[in-house]
Write a structure and sequence with these properties.
922 residues, Jelly Rolls, 5 domains, 11-stranded mixed sheet, 14 helices, globular, EC 3.2.1.40, hydrolase, Bac_rhamnosid_C
Length: 922
Amino acid sequence: MKLIKILSIIGIIILCDLPVQAQQVYHLRVESAINPIGIEKQHPALSWMILSDERNLEQTAYQVLVASSPEKLTPKDADCWNSGRVESDESVFVSYDGDSLESGQQCFWKVKVWTNKGESNWSPVAKWSMGLLEKSDWQGEWIGLTKFFPGDTLATHSRLAARYFRKEFATKKKVRKATAYIIGIGMYELYINGQKIGNHVLSPGPTDFTKDVRYNTFDVTDNLLKGKNAIGTVLGNGRYFYMRQGVSFQQSKERIPKMLFQLDIEYADGSRLLIVSDNSWKVTADGPIRSNNEYDGEEYDARKELTGWTKPGYNDSHWLNAELVAAPCETILSQINENMIVQDVVKPVSINSLSNGSFILDMGQNMAGWLKLKATGTKGDTITMRFAETLKPDGTLYTANLRSARQTDIYVMKGNGLEQWEPTFVYHGFRYVEVTGFPGIPTLDDFEGEIIYDGFPTIGSFSCSDSLLNRIYANACRTTRNNYKGMPVDCPQRDERDPWLADWATTSLGASYTFDIERLYVKWMDDMQFSQRPRGQMPDITPEPGWTGIKDNMTWPGTYLLIGNLLLTQFGNKEVIVKHYPSMKKWLWYMKGKYLKEHIMVADRFGDWCVPPESMELVHSKDTARTTDGALIGTAYFYHFLQMMSSFAEVSGDTADVEEYKTLAADVRKAFNAEYFDVSKHQYGNNTVTSNLLPLAFGMVDQDVEGLVFEQMIHRVINQDNSHISTGLIGTQWLMRELTKRGRVDLAFTIATQKDYPSWGYMVEKGATTIWELWNGDTADPSMNSRNHVMLLGDLIAWMYQDLAGLKSMDGYPGFKQLWMEPRVAGDLTSAKASTLTPYGKATSDWTLEKGQFIWHVTIPPNTKANVLIPAQSVEQITVSGTPVTKIEGAEYVGKTSSRIQLEIGSGSYTFICKYNGNSND
């Protein structure tokens, strides 16, 4: 057996000296942990992966040990939990079932498994620690500074300086463990003895601060000194203080940044020292960050830097005492999703001078983050940086689409040699930067762009033989990552940046292949639940910015159910369904009671938002032949959600609800067809693509006319739309997969690779490096033409992974426990390759057409199976690396279609080769 790396959430360990026949267990993951500390669940879910080259490997049993120290991690001494040998193939979301856990308790754990190929060694030790489980565990008080300092203003473009807090204390004994808990809203940075804690930025993740706030937890044992110590925190405004939307000036006075902090120090002798936030802390706003507004930018005066303020011995006698302030809300929770970090660094590709003495930097791509600069100047020199996505024809910044957002950073130099700076509490959406006041002539080496998004890893990749599709995929990935900001937002540049639900309803499915977004979406589900009103209503934006109110409709709030389904199917997370099922039902039944009229759901607000308009100057189409009836959309989605809730009821154990959903769904389906289906024309509604697509995708069309409706839709796409996209936000979420499912992958491929308006390729041809908000985003009114928007991606990226590459979770087997691999050859494609990290390990599909042969490399993770559908006419045509497939262990024949052989195979790597039959629509 090969030696294999053992991965855990906290590092990489190499396991050596494995006994013969041992299989190695790796990637110990504690669900709901960021860095596995701060867990609040009494029964955290444990997951592991098995890494092995063996084919057909299946786990048959496991044993988990959990103890209070690594020394006690033996079957005899494990003092928290010894599961004993459990006969099971479960390795994902295995619930801890040991003794009750206490606040701050550290838990060490390991696992071994038995498989059909042998027994493993014990895995390396992993650990997690508990958060503060009771409200009474918080001994600190909320502190802030409500006094306004010179320069602070409440106006359209508000200004508020950062708040600087500090506290000194002494340790008198040897420290065994030190844990810091902090809530700093809007945003914070934490320092101990001069060192910044963590690599995160723009923390914590935003919530609706009136409903819940989230704390971060850090192990700071190694940051403490013997004797005198100092804590420093900086508070920025984030989305707590006034930015424009939804918060009045008066409310802003009540929403000045505040903090709750606790440092729990455990000495080696078992005694403890608790350092908490109270009015003994010192505070000032007379520091270098003079203003920070997410829309407008940050102003930093280096002449006012507080040198040494985070270290012991600093003279803070002129600082004020912190004020005790009101808590923002009652609910305090551990932040389960990763904080944002600097994920990538890009260098500008060009710098051009303007006639007014300013310079324009081109970063080479549309990005979200900030600009880091270095310069040498004299005291008081002021460098101004303005950010925008595009340029005017004369080479100056185009800022009309930013609306009121200024996107401007100002840095005032202190004048003592080389100075380097980047902002702390803002980010920008931009490709171009206007730099004014730079001392001397700037060069490209004086600047770096730092791309910021949530700290999850990239876990997937896609590429194919079509260069345009590869560029579209790259643009989609940039757009997706740019808009993850502690919540999924619509855009990163203008005065909005809000988490509109429907923008991500299906885009998130494609994103789940590329990024490990599970924890972020678990948190977002909580945001949605907190936003629900007592009667069941839900908003279109969550967390709410406060300016939209509740305007009921099916499609936007229904994202609550769609994201729950995503977490179930892609990650195997059944817990989230159990937790949110009551709230989901409450919303759906509220909509039923208020808006279901004779089984037609009449509530709709946006329709099929942003269909391609007939004129390049329009934002929204005025041609009624292009728009889809809102009640048709609402009723189709209501039916779809009834089906979804029926399956959720099974998962959550609410099986008594299943029959009610099914009965109502049948009545809705009957009424829908009676109201919208034209029997003579075989079309729904006014025959838009969306009006036919939704009932097809949701299974609402009677079987005897299903083919006719589909042909009617195809006729519309080809003859009226000239094989271009004509759907908006709603229809595009289902278009590519439904075309492919029904045998028209050729048409889906044509739509995906068009280069003229309207298409994703049109954006590429116009030089876009991200996806636009509008299909005509280069010509429409600037009030709504963000160049960095996810909503028009629909199911495009999911289609690339699931259909072109052939990589998806099989129905009925959540979290890729069993894979369905059916690659599609389309157009002139000669290859497609995709991989993603499933809960069980890495899965890969990589096919090539070469000299009339279909060559397909696949990797199936251990402890899973896959149904592979190979484009061959017979089993005898298929070989695996030269060996007839009939002689491969574990490969079982399932059946044959007109163009494919279906096999079930176990884990491992395979290379299938067969003669290609040439059917591009297989």
